[in-house]
Amino acid sequence: MLGAASVPSTAAAHCCGDPRIAHSPDSRLSAQRPQGSLQGRSSTSNDAMILSALRTATREQHLRVERAVNLPARLRSRASFGSLLERFYGYYSPLEERLTALARAGQVPFDLQPRLKTTLLRQDLLALGRTPEQIATLPLCTELPSLRETADAMGCLYVLEGATLGGQIIRQAVSRQLGIEPDSGCAFFHSYGSRTHSQWSNFCSILADYGDRHPGAESQVITAATETFARLGSWIEGQPVTC
Ligand code: HEM
Questions:
Q1: Using CA atoms, how far apart are residues 124 and 82, in angstroms rounded to an integer?
Q2: Which of 67, 56, 65, 53 has the alpha carbon at shortest distance from 91?
Q3: What is the pTM of this model?
Q4: Torsions phi, psi of 14, nearest 5?
Q5: Homologous superfamily of 35-237 in CATH?
Q6: Which residues of the chain have pLDDT under 50?
């Protein structure tokens, strides 16, 4: 995903031995975009604008989350990888509950259910040896982004859906370094698997359509996305990596 030529050599610090993962200020923006994600869209149309505005506005927060995840340390052992999944569970579980409530209230303009990922996290934690009782007592984040209406949901979901892109790279690194596969503890990062880019493309179309219909909502979408990233960053930073 990250073309070597696109990563400034002075700034790139590759982690987990994968040259596609680099903490350069532009690592995400310089990454090859998934096939079809913005295909057929004019760069001047509103749909491209909302996506490009989201990417620009959240770039720093994405880097912060990458640093907080600290993949090289998380891939040192099954225990530290498991603790990362626990942290994601603690954020996704209450957040997806809120999104589900918004969807029930008709505030999410697509079928949210097949995109929810808490079940995958739970499945992974069970595969890595956690008991249902242990999962039930995991700490849950209470400092969540405020989600009141569709614009908030779209911004939040931009972050959660975008995470599946980097997730493909993480899945490969987890397989290579820990031998953990989607059916043995890495279902969350595998997520949509071979459908990842089509799912992303589909979400981008919905977001673009929403942006076209509600041009005045763009700043609210961006605020929700930034808040979703920021609160996740703080939540993950709150748990030191254990090996
Ligand atoms: C070590 C952790 C991570 C790495 C290495 C990583 C890497 C990447 C890469 C390479 C892309 C570009 C993919 C492509 O264009 O094909 C990307 C996009 C993205 N990632 Fe991450 N990511 C990480 C964690 C996360 C997390 C935890 C989230 C949010 C929960 C997230 C949200 C996003 C978003 C929103 C996009 C942008 C989609 C777009 O506008 O094109 N990432 N990430």
A1: 8
A2: 65
A3: 0.85
A4: -70, 140
A5: Heme oxygenase-like (1.20.910.10)
A6: 1-17, 19-26, 29-47
The ligand 1 atom at the shortest distance from the C-alpha of residue 70 is 1
- Pocket residues: Cβ below 6 A from ligand 1: 1-2, 21, 28, 31-34, 51, 55, 62, 65-66, 69, 71, 158-160, 162-163, 165-166, 169-170, 232
- Tokens linked to 60: 């720093």
Intervals of CATH 1.20.910.10 along the chain = 35-237
Sign, CA torsion 191/187/170/116: positive
Question: Ligand 1 centre and the CA of 196: distance in Å?
Answer: 12
In one letter, which amino acid is 153? A
